[in-house]
Amino acid sequence: xxxxxxxxxxxxxxxxxxxxxxxxxxxxxxxxxxxxxxxxxxxxxxxxxxxxxxxxxxxxxxxxxxxxxxxxxxxxxxxxxxxxxxxxxxxxxxxxxxxxxxxxxxxxxxxxxxxxxxxxxxxxxxxxxxxxxxxxxxxxxxxxxxxxxxxxxxxxxxxxxxxxxxxxxxxxxxxxxxxxxxxxxxxxxxxxxxxxxxxxxxxxxxxxxxxxxxxxxxxxxxxxxxxxxxxxxxxxxxxxxxxxxxxxxxxxxxxxxxxxxxxxxxxxxxxxxxxxxxxxxxxxxxxx
Length: 288
Hints:
two-stranded antiparallel sheet
């Protein structure tokens, strides 16, 4: 669950709806500047279903006892999420081996600096459970990729396309998270943009542009940063622009509940399940 404060209310976006938006970005990805990854179908499946493991968690939803409200996704410990998320990864493998491998790479990438894409050295986390996730997922995706390759063509070309798809998966995930957390119904002030990753832990989202780093132009780079700016209510400009059409519209389902103390998990769950779903329409536009 993505939880953010907006105008005295808590705005809630489920992981299913966040992932559907990531899949939407993946489906529309590519133009004269940004190359579409070779395993496009696998990428779209992976982006759309990469957070299926959250379905059982958001269905409750999870509760933050310390803050007495529904839990923001990043507040949950790995001990609570590793089982459901792992089952979600397996459900993607059941759909498509190549897509499953991409989601395995995504899951383990949480604990390896996104396999170096985040700017670090890519070294695994020192947390023992996180290291176990990395080991299990690496062992899981290797035979799946061999199956998806099927000994057709050059393996090096296939692997390059897979890593390109993984990196685009990271981009569309962060673009979707940025849209799910920011207030898209208020124009952003003209200030310096901030890195989306620095905002993920916040339920208090300051107004202003955001940027997503490490976005590949093609397999192996170069890499650019995409800036997101709410130019007017319901309109978001992306610069540089990575999508096929110069302007596109998506619908993001949002629930809003009172920003109050919720005495227990049942109280928070009742508020969530009784909240109407509002379909927020947003246009994504080219900068020129």
